[in-house]
Amino acid sequence: MIYKDKEKYSDILKDSISYLENHGFENIKADIKGYDRPKQYVKSGSDISITPDITATKEGRTYYFDIGLKSEKPKLLKSKWLFLNTLSNLKSFRFRLITARGHYKFTEDMLDAVNLNHKHLIKL
Fold it and tell me: Which helix (H) or strand (E) segment is 14 a member of?
């Protein structure tokens, strides 16, 4: 999700963290009160920054998670997903998207638009 949607969808972010904790993920970092903030990536020469919604580890492997929700700025969201997917491939991490009911179709359409595989999608 993009930064300006974080307050609006904080309950889905909390549900996602609970889901990950129940599925054995550890060292969870999220941009929400009570958790450490994930590493922020800043584009040099501008004020654009990208932060994954959640980072976690499981069995020694690092995962980046982003929440797929309807947004007013789909182009920005596509760019964020492509960047996180590329970064995770470079560092041998895993990238997954989490979506909630009412947002499945939007998220699947966005994945098709940027040619990301649907196996990256976790439905809550």
Answer: helix 10-22
pLDDT digits (tens, 9 = 90+) for 22-54: 999 999 999 888 889 998 888 888 788 888 999
> β-strands 54-58, 121-123: how paired?
unpaired
Q: Are 1 and 71 in contact (CB under 8 A)?
A: yes
Q: Which helix (H) or strand (E) holds 119?
A: none
* Cα atoms in the 13 Å half-sphere on the side-chain side of 44: 0
Residue with tokens 């309807």: 70
- Whether 81 and 110 have beta carbons less than 8 Å apart is answered as yes
SS3 59: coil
pLDDT at 112: 86
Q: How far is CA 61 from the centre of its chain?
A: 16
Amino acid in position 106: F
* CA 86 to chain CA mean position, Å: 13
Residue 61 sits at φ, ψ, to 5 deg, of -110, 135
Kindly report, residue by residue over 80-89, the tens digit of the pLDDT. Answer: 888 998 999 9
